[in-house]
Structure formats: C-alpha cells, structure tokens
Amino acid sequence: MQPPIRYKFRFLLTEKITFVYFIITLLIVLLFNIPFAEKLPIIATRIYVTLIILFLTYLSTFSNSTIIVFVRQVFLGYLLSIWYPETFDFNRYFPNKDYLIAGFEQKVFGMQPALAFHKLLPQNWFSEIMNFGYLAYYPIMILSGMYFYITDRKQFKYFYFIVLFSFYIYYIIYILFPTAGPQYYYCTIGAENIQNGFFPRINEYFNFQSHLNCVQDNQGFFLNLVEKTQLAGERPTAAFPSSHVGITTLILFVFLEKRKYFIFALLLPVYAALVAATVYIQAHYLIDVMAGLLSSTLFYFSGKYIYKKFLLNLEDNSDESDLKLINCIKANNKI
Question: Largest CB tally within 10 Å, which of 29, 69, 184, 196?
Fold first, then answer.
C-alpha cells in the first residue's frame, strides 16, 4: 500500500501579500499614538486570521483539492469586509484631512462639485440611476471574479492578486490620510461655512461622531439600498482616493487586456454611472475620483509586474498547474 501523497506547504501569492499588509499595519499600530486598548483587537484579529490561513494551508498539504484552494481565496476576499471598517479604527485617532480636499476643490473649481452636481439634477429618476450605479460596484467585483474562476483558473489567480494588491494599498492610504468624504464633512461643518468657502479643520471629530447626520431629500428603491448599506458598514473613512472608482477601473483594464471586449462594452455604461454616482451621492469629492482613476492605472501596472516576478520566483517550488502558467509566461513574455 502506497503512502498518501503529501504536497508542499506553500502559501498562495494572495496570502503572501496579506501577510505584508499585516506587517505594515502592525507597524502603524506600534509606531503611532493609538490607545493600547484599541491596539489589542487589531493585533488579535491578525493573529486569528494568520492561524486560519496556516490551518487552511496545512490542509492543502494532504490534498491538492481545488475546493480547499477556493476556500482559501474566498476567505481572503471575505476579510476585506473586516479591513475596510478597520481603517476607521486607525484613522479616527489622526487629524481629519477633509478640509484640504474640500478647500482645494473650492480653489480649483470655485465651488463644491459634489453639491453642484446634485443640485443640477435633483430628480428622483436620476438619483435612482446614480444609486444603482454606486451599488453596482459590489456585483461587478463578485461577478468578475466568478467569471474568471469559471472560465480560466490561471487568469483568476492573476485577476485576484491584482485586486487584493490594490485594495491593500488603498487601505494603507486611508489609514494614513484620513478623509471622510462630503456626506460626512459637509454635514459636520454646515451649509453656511460651505457657502462662505470656509472649510475648517475638525481634527479628531469623527472619533466621537461616526454616523451620517444629513438626510436625503429624494426617495427610491436604490437610494434606500445605498442608505441601508452605508448604515450597516460605512464609516467616515476612505474617501481619498476613491476605491470604488479605482477597483472598478482596474477590473475593466483586466477585461480589456484579456480581450473580453463584449464584457467590457457591457460594463462600460454601468461603470460610467458608478463613477458619476460617487460624486453625486456625495460619497466622494471630484478630486477623489480623479485620484481613483490615476491610482488604478498605477496599481494595475505595479500589480502586474509584481505578480510576474512572484510567479517566476516560485518556479522551483511550483506544482504542475503553476509550472504550465510559468512556461506560458516565458514563452509569450506576458501574463
């Protein structure tokens, strides 16, 4: 009777960059003036997650099952729902920077585009289109991942790495540069200050006040869904740059790179509504959107370069499926 096959204990590339994110955020926890009582949950979460990743990786040494690998990837995606609100746990102890973004927009445009856009088209029907576009962010991410997983597992690894890589960079920016966005900041400083072009510093205000104060005039199905989503998981954090715009733009880049022109064309009008919606519903400043577009380009090419380097360095420790992908890269000099 032959002994069971044991596979190498090997982390996925997405798990490796997750550990890098852990290290960077732990350094922030240790080096910055965050109360000790607040540090403990952050550190404990990383310990628990690391243990789960180690356990799942250990299971993979007994079976090269695609189900276990799938669970490992899905688990990392699920963790984004923890890392996003956690950025607020960090930056509520840092001085808020919204006054810089809003003040810059006032100097450049002579107004606040988020307010002007909403006043220009206040109709309920247009509000519903915008809120639908904003909500489309989540299905676009999930369905795009499912598409690559079902049609081409090798390209799924590439797609998933670039998306997680970009999310982690965005979250680090959000931690170190705290901005809440117009929907929080405008309501905090009041209409009179905005009309006078005065954008005061509010420092650590959101450490003590973290819920939305303003009420939308419009009503509608998609608007209500957005409000419920924000009440459930939104925090006064992560405005600059817009990851809504950045991640969705990056996903379109991947579809374009893979010559999935039909899917790209289907997503394009929804993408346009999503980009416009981030400003219309006052989740982001116009500057946030521009920064989201620029950062997505940078993260896309950076992620692609790092992925290729990582994969080629794994050649000596790769399984058969990865070796096929590595040989394909060498032969075609492309992902």
Answer: 184
Of 4, 19, 11, the closest CA to residue 69 belongs to 11
Q: Which amino acid type is present at position 184?
A: Y
CA–CA distance, 295 with 298 (Å, rounded to integer): 5
217-255 pLDDT, tens digit each: 667 889 998 988 887 778 899 999 999 999 999 999 999
Domain, as residue range, for 175: 94-332
pTM score of the predicted model: 0.90
Total structural domains within the chain: 1
